[in-house]
Design a protein that fits this description.
six-stranded mixed β-sheet, hydrolase, Purple Acid Phosphatase, chain A, domain 2, alpha/beta, 19% strand, 2 domains, single chain
Length: 345
């Protein structure tokens, strides 16, 4: 047998072993987590999709490259195309989710009495199945490296996380800035496990000030938090916070609105906020032109507000593509993002 054939045989054996080992690790990793009732098999498959690229993916790529180099005819081209696809898959699952960028947004014109501030805005951490403890610790270090006045978190802190929320989320206590946030749909069983109250307790233990249904005065601004649109009652909160609104434009004043879903901002009266921030969309997470916008509009949001700063009837809206992943443990052309927002004269 030629040396190349023997080498490839061992590569394919190691690939098979990696797949089996990934399943075993997934079964171990599945233990002691919050799980959405009735979705144990889905979660196990998602964990296998997390571990398989790490334990078997490199051998698959090496094997396909070996066939492309040593094969002949159509087999060679098929293996080459498959190798390119696997390279994209490994990049999206192993590399891009671990990258991050800081995107800066400046909004000028302060309302009377409001101080100039710099804000770090994040969303969709999804600590749990795919976003691990070391990544949470790295995120805290990145936030601490920024010169900001506060951190705003627009929901979805978790995704089927370990049972011990207080210990797992302890790194949040190390953030050196005030942290304000709201819960997202995966935090309030829409969908997700029944962890809302333990999560609230854990976040508050580590210094996070939760805003849903509250107005908090801060540096001349009024921070307003709204419920998640799927698992809460933002409509009632909006009626309470803007009782004078009857479809006519209102003065935005000094209100900064924090909510999880961009669609919630569409419920606000015209001119309701100086700035609203939201997450939820992940910016599409895996961007395929044409397909990703269609999926977003049909499964995730009714508004074309997916990633970036938008002019809306309620006022400016910043939608962040978030930090973590869900569904598939992958990002492609939608890098994890920390928003740096400067509000100045």
């Amino acid at each position: 047998m030629p040396p190349m054939s023997r080498a490839l045989r061992w590569v394919w054996r190691l690939f098979t072993l990696g797949l089996v080992l990934a399943l075993a690790v997934s079964l171990w990793d599945y233990q002691d987590r919050w799980h959405t009732p009735g979705f144990w098999l889905r979660n196990l498959v998602m964990l296998w999709l997390y571990w398989a690229p790490r334990l078997a993916g490199p051998f698959l790529l090496i094997g396909l490259v070996g066939v492309a180099v040593s094969g002949r005819g159509f087999l060679r081209w098929k293996a080459g195309v498959a190798a390119l696809l696997v390279m994209v898959g490994l990049w999206s699952s192993l590399v891009e989710p671990g990258l991050s960028r800081v995107r800066q947004t400046t909004i000028t014109g302060l309302p009377p009495g409001a101080q100039p501030v710099r804000l770090a805005v994040i969303a969709d951490i999804h600590w749990g199945l795919f976003f691990r403890d070391h990544q949470l610790e790295r995120l805290v270090r990145q936030l601490n490296a920024l010169e900001v006045d506060a951190v705003l978190v627009a929901g979805d802190w978790t995704h089927e996380p370990p049972l011990d929320l207080k210990t797992g989320l302890a790194p949040l206590a190390g953030i050196r800035h005030p942290v304000f946030g709201v819960l997202g749909n995966h935090d309030v069983e829409a969908p997700g496990p029944d962890l809302t109250e333990p999560l609230r307790e854990a976040l508050q233990t580590h210094g996070v000030q939760l805003l849903e249904g509250r107005r908090v005065a801060w540096k001349g601004w009024e921070l307003v938090g709204l419920d998640d649109g799927w698992g809460g009652r933002p409509e009632a909160q909006i009626r309470a916070f803007w009782p004078e609104a009857s479809g006519s434009a209102t003065a935005p004043g000094n209100r900064l609105v924090v909510t999880h879903q961009p669609d919630t901002v569409a419920l606000l009266p015209p001119g309701a906020a100086h700035l609203s921030v939201a997450g939820h969309t992940h910016g599409g997470q895996i961007w395929i032109p044409g397909l990703t916008p269609w999926v977003l509009r049909n499964t995730n949001t009714r508004q074309p507000w997916w990633n970036g700063l938008y002019d809306t009837p309620a006022g400016p809206l910043l939608v962040t593509p978030g930090i973590g992943t869900i569904g598939l443990p992958a990002r492609l052309a939608v890098m994890p993002t920390i928003e740096l927002v400067e509000l100045k004269p």
